[in-house]
Design brief:
Elements lengths: L6 E5 L3 H13 L3 E5 L2 H7 L5 E5 L8 H10 L6 E5 L4 H9 L4 E4 L4 H33 L3 H11 L4 H8 L3 H15 L4 H11 L11
Parallel strand pairs: 1-2, 1-3, 3-4, 4-5
Helix pairs in contact: 5-9, 6-8, 7-8
């Protein structure tokens, strides 16, 4: 089954602007959904890929409030602001909060499409990284509690005999656990084990914090 195409969500309380933007984006090859308010958009938002093109000044929840709500939600889509009422402080605030771009109506077609392209690419990178991290954490979930203990000592630079003494087990058992760990994590060196452990966020603090 092919993945669903990313959706450009256009939000504007001005119906004529909403129609014009949707027509432009669809003609440029994008899949588009329109929303008359930020509240309507949030109520309908699922987990699909894409980005948001939104007005700034709208009744009820405005564009900045929408941006904050998205950042707190489960689907943090990139935001492109397109407004006729922008000012420097608001622009700065929006960009500091991670907006992909802040355009003033009527924005040149090329500028709007370039911003949408960047936003969709940014969303794709974020989703790929999340998928990579999920797959990595799934590997770590396959470790037993004892294997996690051994791994923590390994990434702290302990030798097998030191790990055995610390955990009250034999060196042979430590070696067996290390073999199981490297097999489950698909890693072949202490450096790679350490990198994977850090990337997964498995251990808080530094490895040297071991007692």
């Amino acid at each position: 089954m092919s993945e669903a195409l990313p959706v450009v969500h256009v939000i504007d309380d001005d119906a004529s602007c909403l129609v014009a933007l949707a027509r432009l984006l669809k003609a440029s090859g994008y899949t588009v959904q329109t929303h008359a308010s930020a509240a309507d958009f949030l109520a309908e938002l699922g987990y699909g890929a894409g980005c948001v093109v939104t007005d700034l000044r709208m009744p009820g929840m405005d564009g900045l409030e929408l941006q904050h709500a998205l950042k707190r939600g489960a689907n943090v889509l990139p935001v492109v602001f397109l407004t006729g009422e922008g000012d420097i402080p608001t622009t700065v605030q929006a960009m500091r909060q991670g907006a992909e771009d802040f355009l003033t109506k009527p924005a040149p077609k090329e500028d709007l499409l370039a911003a949408v392209d960047r936003a969709i690419a940014r969303d794709a990178r974020s989703r790929a990284e999340s998928a990579r991290l999920h797959a990595l954490r799934t590997r770590f979930d396959n470790l037993t509690n004892r294997e996690r203990e051994v791994l923590r000592h390994v990434v702290a630079g302990r030798l097998n005999k030191q790990i055995a003494a610390d955990l009250g087990i034999s060196e042979r058992t430590v070696k067996l656990h290390r073999t199981a760990i490297t097999t489950k994590l698909q890693a072949h060196s202490v450096a790679e084990l350490t990198r994977l452990a850090q990337a997964s966020g498995l251990f808080e603090g530094t490895p040297s914090d071991l007692p």
